[in-house]
C-alpha cells in the first residue's frame, strides 16, 4: 500500500469520479465546439463572399466532420471503460478498481483532457482564421495535436481491454476516422491558404484611381529591374559558356591525340572471303 504510486492532486477514492467527470467534460467541450462552428458558419456567410466564403465553408465543414469523429470516439471510449471496469473489478466497487489501478486511471484522465483541450484549441484557431486575425498554420498544428491525443486515449484504453473486445475494435476504428478527418482539415486549410494568398495578390477591386496608378508605376519599376537582372544573368551565362569551351577544348584535343586514334579506313581492294561457319 505504501509503495503504490499516489496521485499528486486528488485522492485515491476520487479517481473514479474524476474519470467520469473528465469524460463528461470532454463531451461537453466537443458539443460546445460543434455549436461554435455552426455559429461561425452562419457568420461567415453573412460577412464574406466569393473565394473567402468558399474557403471558410470548406475549412469549417472539415472541422465539423472532425468534431463529429471525436464525439463518436469519446462515446466509444466511455463504453470501453465501463466494460473494462465491469470485467476487471470482480467483487470490488468501481471506486476501488480505479484506486487499485491508479496509474492507468490517471493516464486515462490525462488522455481525455488532451482530447478536449485539442478540440477547444481547434475551434479557437478556426475562429481566428475566419476573422482573418489568426494563422492557417495554427489549424494545422491543432489537427496534429488532436491526432496525437487520440492515439494517447486509444493506447490508455487498450492497456486494460480484452483483445477480442468489440468496443476496442470500434475505438480503434474511430481513431482511424479521427486521423482521416484531421488530415482533411490540414488539406482544406492548405488549399484555402493558397487560394486566399493568390486572390489577395491579384485583387484590385477595392483600390482608388490614385492607388491603382501608384501600384502600376511600382509594378513597372519591378518589371524593369527584373528585365535588367535577366539580361545580366544572360550575359553571365554566355561568359561562363565561353570559359567552359576554352577550358574544355584543349583537354578534349589532348585526349584525342594521346589516347584515341582514328580507325584506318578499309582498303578498297579484294576482300577476303569470310570463314565458313563451323558446326556446333
Describe this structure in words.
By secondary structure, the protein is mainly α. The protein has a domain at 14-197: I/LWEQ domain (Up-down Bundle), CATH 1.20.1410. 78% of the residues lie in helices and 0% in strands. Helix 2 (50-88) runs antiparallel to helix 6. The longest helix has 50 residues, at 209-258.
Structure described in brief:
It is found in: Cytoplasm. The protein is mostly helical and about 280 residues long. The chain has helices at about 15-45, 50-90, 95-100, 100-130, 135-160, 165-200, 210-260.
Beta-strand fraction estimate: under 5%
Identify low-pLDDT runs: 253-258
Q: Which structural class is indicated by helix and strand composition?
A: mainly alpha
Helix proportion: over 70%
- Name the overall outline: elongated
User: Tally the helices: what do you get?
Assistant: 7
Protein name: HIP1R protein
Coiled coil: 207-243
InterPro entries: I/LWEQ_dom_sf (IPR035964), ILWEQ_dom (IPR002558), Sla2_fam (IPR030224)
Keywords: Coiled coil, Cytoplasm
